[in-house]
Amino acid sequence: MSFFGKLKQRLFTSSSRLDKGLDEIVSQGGEPEAEDDQRLAAQTLAPEPAPEPAPEPGPLPEPAPEPEPVPAPEPEEPIEPEPRPVPQPEEPEQPEDPEELPDEPEELPEELPGEQPVEMPRDWPLEAPQPQGDSLPEPAPMEIPVGNPSEIPLGSASAATSAADAAGVSVSQGAAKVGFLGRLLGRSSAPASAEAAAAAKTPAARIPAAKTSAAPAGPVIRRALDDDMLEQLEELLIASDMGVDTALRVTANLAEGRYGRKLSVTDIKRALADEIARIMEPVARPMPIYTRTPQVVLVVGVNGSGKTTTIGKLASQFRAAGKSVIIAAGDTFRAAAVEQLQVWGERAGVPVLTAPEGSDPASLAFDAMTKAEAEGADLLLIDTAGRLQNRADLMEELAKIVRVIRKKDPTAPHNTLLVLDATTGQNALSQVEIFRKLADVSGLVMTKLDGTAKGGVLVALADKFGLPIHAIGVGEQIDDLAPFDPQEFARALTGLDA
Ligand SMILES: Nc1nc2c(ncn2[C@@H]2O[C@H](COP(=O)(O)OP(=O)(O)OP(=O)(O)O)[C@@H](O)[C@H]2O)c(=O)[nH]1
């Protein structure tokens, strides 16, 4: 089975809900179409173009003068990432034990020049080039790589890229690599046999095959888009966890230029997929990589959301991309969480720093910073507790971790990733709201998109918060984390094949 097919299977629950719902909506009040009508409909599938504006009478206004080009200032010193504010606890701060923690600097710099995070184009090679000099911020052309090369079958895009990199040849992955979601949708051109072997190892292989949206034999059913149908579509999108506001916006946009026209299920899927991709496009951004090391990535989220698993996957993939990584097991209150992280650390070949149960996570974070600096690590991934039961405590804990790591690097943490569990549906929205208050969230990772009918929540999140979505988790295996591709996600969610 192709990797593309895996994704389709994994998003089966979400797409099948939409599939089934759309079938029902269109068949109610819809009618089979004669062949001639089908040809006509195919020609008029796109929304009607807006009428051309009538030429304005009278003279045209003078064109506005072009603004003077402003030369970009050349940085003389290395540019550092901007520090994000330390989240302030609601309760008055307790004085820290000076024996436990090193002195805080008198005052954190108000503002540091910000290093522009470099977002990685999707077809960059996996290997980041080495910095050319001390003074220039060096963009690291890397997005979260797909899969662990040791597990990537020969002939896959990543393997091809690595080989080409080794040979000093630049490879456009666009040609060889179909995105992760795309591969799960079944459009991979990679050899099927090796991928089938890899897929067979995953739980996804045991999920029943997804219903395909290939046109059924016989006449296509079409239904004229009217108010009733729009209302039904709204309800269906709400049931898919898109949220009321987003569902209303999506259906309103879908109606534009199509109202009164006869649509088939595939027409609606295409229109929906376009609309969803349009919403998701601006938030699909790989995690920025900075030249400043260690780059500190704070990972937050409620217990069970998939933080540990995501850290393990990230560590493995960054390491496979040639980065040196250290993990700090910051949830010191749960021995099981620490043990789980150690297992992932072993799998990824990455050291995991731990502290005795119940000890201060901030001092572990400080030690981890010291070690990461001493060892010249590229990335430090810090796990944190996710107990929301006592928000004030959690807020203070996160704030203290941030204060302490800023003693070492005032610009840290460079990324604060909020890990969300897709199966929680609309609850993910309130988690974002809460964690944005607790920590300065810089991006999202959505886990467990496999096996949930609530994948639509990602659209609601993008629409409501506009926070970057760096990656998605679609399984429990080490290579089941992928950069977020809005087009492929939209197609997978709507169950569209092509
Ligand atoms: N199906 C699926 N399961 C996942 C995914 N990500 C994580 N999980 C599973 O979700 C469960 C919880 O994941 P953890 O990584 O332990 O979550 P956590 O946020 O670290 O939880 P605590 O350790 O309790 O703080 C585990 O059984 C993982 O295997 C995913 O993308 N898909």
From TrEMBL:
Region (Disordered) residue spans: 14-141
Biased composition (Pro residues): 48-73
Main location: membrane
Its membrane topology: Peripheral membrane protein
Acidic residues: bias regions: 90-113
Domain SRP54-type proteins GTP-binding: 294-495
Keywords, ordered alphabetically: Cell membrane, Cytoplasm, GTP-binding, Hydrolase, Membrane, Nucleotide-binding, Receptor
Domain AAA+ ATPase, chain residue ranges per copy: 293-440
Location of the Signal recognition particle SRP54 helical bundle domain: 212-280
Compartments in which it is found: Cell inner membrane; Cell membrane; Cytoplasm
Binding site for GTP: 301-308, 383-387, 447-450
The enzyme's E.C. designation: 3.6.5.4
UniProt cross-references to Gene3D superfamilies, sorted A to Z: P-loop containing nucleotide triphosphate hydrolases, Signal recognition particle SRP54, nucleotide-binding domain
Short name of any one Pfam family annotated for the protein: SRP54
Catalytic function, reaction form: GTP + H2O = GDP + phosphate + H(+)
CDD domains: FtsY
Family of this protein: Belongs to the GTP-binding SRP family. FtsY subfamily.
Quaternary structure, from the entry: Part of the signal recognition particle protein translocation system, which is composed of SRP and FtsY. SRP is a ribonucleoprotein composed of Ffh and a 4.5S RNA molecule.
Function: Involved in targeting and insertion of nascent membrane proteins into the cytoplasmic membrane. Acts as a receptor for the complex formed by the signal recognition particle (SRP) and the ribosome-nascent chain (RNC). Interaction with SRP-RNC leads to the transfer of the RNC complex to the Sec translocase for insertion into the membrane, the hydrolysis of GTP by both Ffh and FtsY, and the dissociation of the SRP-FtsY complex into the individual components.
Name this polypeptide is given: Signal recognition particle receptor FtsY
Organism: Seohaeicola saemankumensis
Name of the gene this protein is made from: ftsY
